[in-house]
Structure formats: C-alpha cells, structure tokens
Amino acid sequence: MATKNLSEYNVEKVPDASNMIFGIVVSEWNSEITGAMLEGCVNTLEKHGALPENIHVKTVPGSFELIYGARQMTLNDGYDAVIILGCVIRGETPHFDYICQGVTQGIARLNATNNIPVVYGLLTTENMQQAKDRAGGRLGNKGDECAVVAIKMAKF
Q1: Catalytic site residue 95?
Q2: Contact in structure between 83 and 24 (CB atoms under 8 Å)
Q3: What is the block-wise mean pLDDT of the chain (156 residues), using blocks of 10 residues?
Q4: Which of the following is catalytic: 16, 32, 68, 95?
Q5: Which of 2, 80, 96, 130 could cross-link 20 (Cys pair, CB 3.0–4.6 Å)?
Q6: In the chain, where do the E strands start and end?
C-alpha cells in the first residue's frame, strides 16, 4: 500500500517544462481510472509550463499495448519524454500477472535501449477502490507523479 500521496512533491525541484514536448500513451481499458490519470498528468505538465500543443496523447486498447505505443513514440523525433498510463486490476485468473510483468519488462527494455525516457504509469491494484484511490482519490493521482517524473527525466 502506498504510504505517501502521489500528488505531493516539492514544486521548487521541478524544472521548467515550457520548452519540452511530451508523448502520453493511455490505455482505454479501465477508462474511468486512466482518464483521471491522464487529466492529472496533463494538468501537472501544464502547471510546470508545458504548452498544450506540446502534449501529444495517443490511446491504445489495453495495458499490454502501451509498450507498442510507447515504442512508436520513441521513434518520433522531438519527444523529450514519453509517459504510459494504464491500470490493471487483479481478477480470478493469472492474466493480471502476465500483463503486469509484460508491461514492466517492455517499458524497462525501452528505457534501456532508447535515448528518450519512458515513464512507467501502470497502476497494478487488487481492486477498483485501490485504483480510484491512486487516480485522484485519497492517495493522490499517479498521473501527477508521472508528469513530474517525465519533466525531471527529460531534463536529466
């Protein structure tokens, strides 16, 4: 369980994002959650100076497809960072484990082999309430956290 609010951070330690271009790949699956994460992410990027026209959002059907979407964005010149946003909620089958492991390994591979940071914004929760708590609920918004990470990594 998260012990800190995902939306809390030291604003003074976040670089100016006014000259940065961001790609965001968001899963349509669990859209109630991913939509809230996307809203938080975009708002936080803009709060730190990113221009709306420099935030490019693409959707993919599910979380596994986030890898392909992120890869395609890393191939396009001009992105300073790519952010993936998805949500997988445990069910009754091992599908949860396969998707979570696959996405994690895929994004790790992209980070190890590309010059553009790919920020991991995949919620992996036991139930819908845990996801809501992390998508603008009592534990903040993972989208906010991902935006801050993207800005910092783009400046790295």
Answers
A1: yes
A2: yes
A3: 72 91 97 97 96 97 96 90 96 84 94 94 95 92 96 94
A4: 95
A5: 80
A6: 22-27, 55-60, 81-89, 118-125, 135-137, 140-141
